[in-house]
Amino acid sequence: MERSPPNIQKLVCESCWRTVFSIKSFHIAWSAKSAPRRSKSAGFSYTTPTWAEMQHSIDSMQCRWCSFVSRMIMDCYFWTAPPPNGRTFQLRIRFSQRSNIADEGSGDAGPYAPSVNVDPITHLYLAVDNRPDFKYCVHTAEGDPAGRCIPQREILLDVDSSTAYDLIRQSIDRCLRHKFCPSPRCTPLPTRVIDCKDNPLRLFVSPQGIEDKYVALSYVWGCKEQPHCTKQQNLDSYTKGIPLDYIPTTVMDALRVTRTLGLRYLWVDAFCIIQDSKDDKAREIKQIRRIFHNAHLTIVAASADTVYDGFLHERRPPEPPATMLPFRCPEGCLRDDATANGPACPPQTLSTNERGASRNTCFHRAD
Prior knowledge:
It is built from eleven helices and 17 strands. It has 367 residues and is of the alpha+beta class. It has two domains: 6-155 and 318-345, no CATH class; 187-295, no CATH class. The strands form four sheets. The protein has a seven-stranded mixed beta sheet, sandwiched between helices. Helix 4 packs across helix 5 (64-77). Mean pLDDT is 84; it is low at 101-117 and 343-357.
């Protein structure tokens, strides 16, 4: 007779434990992870208890699977009122786990490595009454043995925490050791970079041929102008120091990330291109593809609508919140896994090899 950890088994009712989360049923659903995406037969299929029975399990046993499925059914049929109490549903469950690997051609900056998501993304697919699948992102907690099967971790809300920076470092290290990623190397610095080593920050005009690691910032200027961007009249003074109150919030956040990761130089177009010089702009814009490609890390401030918004603010918890469910590892042990109730949501910060950008790209996504 199977012995199950009570803290895991109590996540679902007895009916769900005997069906969806039995050893055989869960194995069938998990084994479908490599099946064709549009397969109509892969996975585990079963008939749910009646609607009234599921609601009773939710109320009396706090069954998370019955609750999860009930919400999905309401969304699937666009119902605003519950179905009849005696109604049952045919449900098909399967997992999917795929990596996104696409070769990238060469360009002015030289050959590119393939564009790779190092870790495969795990999804749970649910289909009710042969309707189109609902797709959910699956992740688990750091240190949980289920992490051997599920690479994704719970969503990080504090993106300016030591945990966030540790994850960035680990992801960069994993990319650099991955067979599809190029070997680390120092590359020539762009014409100008911001030197973040000491205060005051200053614009560093790099001698031709000097090599070092640097970070590049990708962001949205927004509708507002940047009155303190580099121009011909302040170029010399900026090489001695840039007043902190001249630097917009998004750029300040990028400076903080650069310093925290132990890097010295940051490239930002507003400060590293002379904005009122047609010749300099024409010359530097031609180099932008090379600048991003050669960067040790590119920060993508995707959560900032303007340069004054910043991107290191704490994120709101996802809505609706993730649902914690049992997970049966292939070797038979039981662990928890969290399934996001909604579209796939990657972590708030991650490193990956992005087309046309640097080998490592740190995305700071919107809430």
